[in-house]
Amino acid sequence: MAGRIRAQDVEEVKRRTDLAELVGDYVSLKRAGADSMKGLCPFHDERSPSFHVRPGLGYYHCFGCGESGDAISFLQRLDHLTFAEAVERLAARIHYVLTYEEGGERRQDGPNRARLLAANQAAAVYFVQQLAAEEGGTARSFLSERGFDAAACERFGVGYAPRGWEGLSKHLAAQGYTRQELAQAGLVSEGQRGVYDRFRGRVIWPIRDTSAQVIGFGARRLYDDDNGPKYLNTPETPVYQKSRVLYGLDLAKRAISRGHRAVVVEGYTDVMACHLAGEETAVATCGTAFGKEHITVLRRIMGDDAAAEVVFTFDPDEAGQKAALRAFADEKLFSAQTYVAVAPDGLDPADLRLHRGDEAVRELFTRKTPLFEFALRQAVSRFDLNSVEGRVSALRAAAPIVAEIKDPGLRPGYTRELARMLGSELAEVQRAVQTAGGAGGGRPSGGPGGRRGPEPGRYDDRAADPQPSAGSPGPQGSVLASLPGTPSVRLERDALMAMLQQAAAIGPELMAQAVTAEVRDPTLRTVRDAVAAALPSLGEDGWLERVIAEAPPHYAGAIRELAIAPMPQRNPEQLGDYSRAIVVSLLDRDLLSLKAELMARMQRLGDPASPDSRRIQEQLAALELARRSLRAE
After folding, report:
1. DSSP assignment of 437-449, as one string?
2. What is the phi-psi region of residue 104: left when phi exceeds 0, alpha when psi lies from -120 to 50, beta otherwise?
3. Which residues are CB-contacts of 226 (< 8 A; sequence separation ≥ 6)?
4. For the CA atoms of the chain, what is the radius of gyration?
5. pLDDT tens, position by position, 386-395
6. Most buried among 149, 172, 325, 488, by the most CB within 10 A?
7. CATH top-level class of 4-101
8. pLDDT at 24
9. For 161, what's the count of Cα atoms within 13 Å in the CB-facing half-sphere?
10. Tens of pLDDT, residues 179-189
């Protein structure tokens, strides 16, 4: 077994790895200032981005859950790798050849993920080779008849599994993979006659993670004498969990992140058809229903922009309708607007492209219908509207759907539409919708664009029209009078006053850093986000009005108050120095918080000479350097 990876190699791999690019394979990142990017945390579910990446430092930190570290720890925690496996993957990513020292054997805590991934990759290459072989003619004809030529197959890595029982297993055994490794990767099965290839006589699609590593396969039956299921997928393995995997996401992630739009289809050929037709945001589940973990994966790539779109396609049959309603049940977990697209004549995207061309596929997604409207019509269609009992039951089923519409401006119109569909009095339907919403069935109201409001008892800084709770002053009143009097909030308040009133004296470079600082008070955090959004207009006439325009409407008064309130430093000659100092103090608080966390982590490790302790010491040194650099400004 290979020994310990040479320490110099570990440091070189970290130095050469672009942390922002690595994290960007899993999370949609946006620039948040000089050497700072942020996005939704991949380690916990959140609605507002609190995950910050500093590529220059090679360090990340989430202010929500506290996760922090470097490129190696990021892969270790997210993909459940050992230290050595994470280093090996990063080295392969940058084409760096590692050197191993003798005598330091790597401890094995279960299956070696790197070996399983390598076995899957070797299998993918084998399947592609078999597609080009003589026996692969049937598979080539199957693909060609569906409009997929050799170039399309190469783009998606499509292959063929021969009909024999041990072609793949013998091929991989010759490359040094053990029977145990092949079983753990899901490439072979075991029966009464021993071990045999799992995939036989089938078209094969490699399933890749967001970093384009092959983690499993989907296989389609070709021959009439195959008694297995039409579609057969890799079973659950240490590297493949189907509830967290979306086929095609490795190819679609950049288009999804860039356009804040995702198309969810039902099969591998549908994904291929969409991409080939120009809809490069298409993905599909792998042998399972679209669920909550798939939503989490998509949100991290797409971001939580309320103007984002997720478009589902479903077959028009009963199974497709049930799938649509299951998707609607989890729809509230999206901030994005959700739609459903059903092709004319019930064709799926692959058949639509085959019979009507690429343009028809693209047009399919322009004729989308809001998912709640689809769910509403499906709910009503289950009942006999010619009877009083049927109309009452339909109203009970449909009223919560109307109450849950994200955009409150649409609810009155769909209330009237529901009354028309049922043939009921409008007032009766209005009461039912209001009751459904008041009973907790509906979402809290949001603002323009359908953005969801804050959950009861929890502040959500994405809400467009946050309302102050009864008995407490909100952002419409005096923000300075309503803020807590703690030192932490006073620092945030004074720093934002300085940023709004003395932006020129602070300077664009320091301002760019200031808007990345953690602000814990929810009202002030919203103001900070508005300043960040308006930063490109810094120095132009009307900059303050641009800040106000970037904030939710109810925060206009709070921003104006912060922009005109007397600052603690009254001497005009010292106002610029004071403003820069208070902003630096806010940024320094973040660095001190990171330092305290790292110190506590190192203390828990106990051994100051361990590799983890040494890495933390290096991170502490980098933080101190950053603090000194900040003070020098």
Report:
1. HHTT-SPPP--GG
2. beta
3. 200, 201, 202
4. 28
5. 888 888 999 9
6. 172
7. alpha beta
8. 87
9. 30
10. 999 999 999 99
CATH level 3 topology of 249-369: Dna Topoisomerase Vi A Subunit; Chain: A, domain 2 (3.40.1360)
Domain boundaries, the chain: 4-101, 113-239, 249-369, 382-448, 479-632
Number of DSSP helices (H) and strands (E) in the chain, helices first: 28, 18
* Residue found under tokens 């209001």: 434
pLDDT band at 13 (very low <50, low <70, confident <90, very high): very high
Contacts of 330 (CB under 8 A, 6+ apart): 290, 291, 292, 295
Distances (CA, A) of 304 to 455, 467, 545: 16, 21, 25
Measured CA to CA, the distance from residue 475 to residue 555 in angstroms comes to 6
What mean pLDDT value characterizes the chain?
A: 82
Under 8 Å between Cβ of 161 and 226 = no
Report pLDDT for 155: 96
Q: Which CATH number fits domain 113-239: 3.40.50.2000, 1.10.10.10, 3.40.228.10, 3.90.980.10?
A: 3.90.980.10
- CA–chain centroid gap for 4, Å, is 34
Q: Is the pLDDT of residue 475 over 50?
A: no
Angle between the N-to-C axes of helices 522-534 and 556-564, in degrees from 0 to 180, rounded to the nearest 10: 80
* Fold match, 113-239 / 479-632: no
**Burial class of residue 246 (count of CB atoms within 10 Å of its CB; 0-12, 13-18, 19+):** buried
Taking only the tens place, the pLDDT of each residue in 125-152 is 999 999 999 999 999 999 999 999 999 9
Tokens 């509207």 belong to residue: 385
Residue holding tokens 């970290």? 14
Which amino acid is located at 23 in the chain?
V
Angle formed by the axes of helices 7-16 and 71-79, nearest 10°: 90
Higher local confidence (pLDDT), 351 or 442: 351
List the Cα angle 357/360/365 in 5-degree steps: 140
CATH number at 479-632: 1.10.860
Query: Which pLDDT value is given to residue 178?
Result: 94
Q: How far apart are CA 401 and CA 403, in angstroms?
A: 5
Please work out, in degrees rounded to the nearest 5, the angle formed at the alpha carbon of residue 176 by the alpha carbons of 9 and 160: 110
Q: Could you tell me the pLDDT band of residue 321, with boundaries at 50, 70 and 90?
A: low
Strand order in the sheet with 59-62: 30-31, 37-39, 51-54, 59-62, 68-69
